[in-house]
Amino acid sequence: MDFIDLKRQQKRIKTQLDVNIQKVLAHGQYIMGPEGKELEGKLAAYVGAKHAIGCGSGTDALLMALMALEIGPGDAVFTPPFTFIATAEVVSLLGATPVFVDIDPQTFNIDPAKLDLAIQAVKANNPSIHPLPKALPAPPVGEGKGEGAGLRPSGIIPVDLFGLPADYDAIDTIAKNHNLFVIEDAAQSFGAEYKDKKTCSFGHIACTSFFPAKPLGCYGDGGMCFTNDATLAQKLDSIRVHGQGIDKYNNIRIGINGRLDTLQAAILLAKFDIFPEEIDLRQGVAQRYTQALSSRPGISTPVIPAGYKSAWAQYSILVESETRRTALINKLKKADIPTAIYYPKPLHMQTAYAGLGYKKGNFPNSESCAERIFSLPMHPYLNIQDQNKISQELA
Ligand SMILES: *Cc1c(COP(=O)(O)O)cnc(C)c1O
Q1: Which of 12, 150, 360, 373 fits a 20 to 30 Å CA distance from 281?
Q2: How far is residue 28's CA from residue 215's CA, in Å, rounded to a whole number?
Q3: Which CATH number fits domain 6-101+109-272: 3.40.50.1820, 3.40.640.10, 3.40.50.10330, 3.40.50.2300?
Q4: Ligand 1 atom 7: the closest Cα is on which residue?
């Protein structure tokens, strides 16, 4: 049994994949070829955003978004610690500071009430309101946007973890009150919905990933930014090609090499044809899991609040303890059923972030989930027999 079965999908679309790949080999525009534009148009229409900018990965999408919003030293960017490192890493790469905010243990997404407290704490430079990173040296006078030793609240990066959208109504209200930008980390949630709007349509800029294991994955690395703001779209377009102006030897800002390969765009076009159907199939797989497992003692199945639709990048369950998790994972492994732990260590406990000075206990919900969570095989083609076997082994 595969954790994510990409072979069955490939079999379904093999003819179209071959046609699309051969087309690229024939025209030879491997960089910024027509397939890239075509994909941007289709995906922008699908999510309901005005502009789409394809790029090299989900990480590049987040980095480019922060660069377009001109984030740098002195800026505090609020984000959950229970996510993949890329969400916070890009903040640090630009010299800004991630300020972690704990998750809601039901949805695994950033808790809006705690977000508001964290913003207040940064504004008052008072860690008794909410845990804060260790004071960093003030940027030199005249540099960055720091106004003294404290950090300046600048933006929020909510993550749609496991495919479930964050609470954008609550987040947008807080962002407006404090004049902060919002970047939606939709790396796991392409195809999901929040109150009848598709993910990748929230925030000032939304970012997704086409890493092979994501709901819409290519055969390598890829990503995309979405925005309704024409100025931001133009900036993102420039940043992805070394900050180009009228052409690539006319550079008007510092950028990166962040383009999406034409071959990956061609592959994604073939995959996108069946993507809406795959999102529906994922709903069925998730429903069958929940039906079989939700009344099992000691197992908590994912909570999907009313008005939300998950893209089911992962089907993650919580058990009562780390010991029980280890026992169940080993039992499944013996039955040849693969599982994965997303994420065993929250970001504030990572060595890479030791410098922020956070302590165990700062974000109890993230810490508790990290100890007790694990994910079951999940993909559109998971069949009933395999699912029955999985739920039997989970007894
Ligand atoms: C996968 C992922 C990313 C990064 O995407 P890549 O394409 O692997 O660079 C960022 N954030 C989250 C939440 C992710 O799951």
Answers
A1: 373
A2: 28
A3: 3.40.640.10
A4: 58
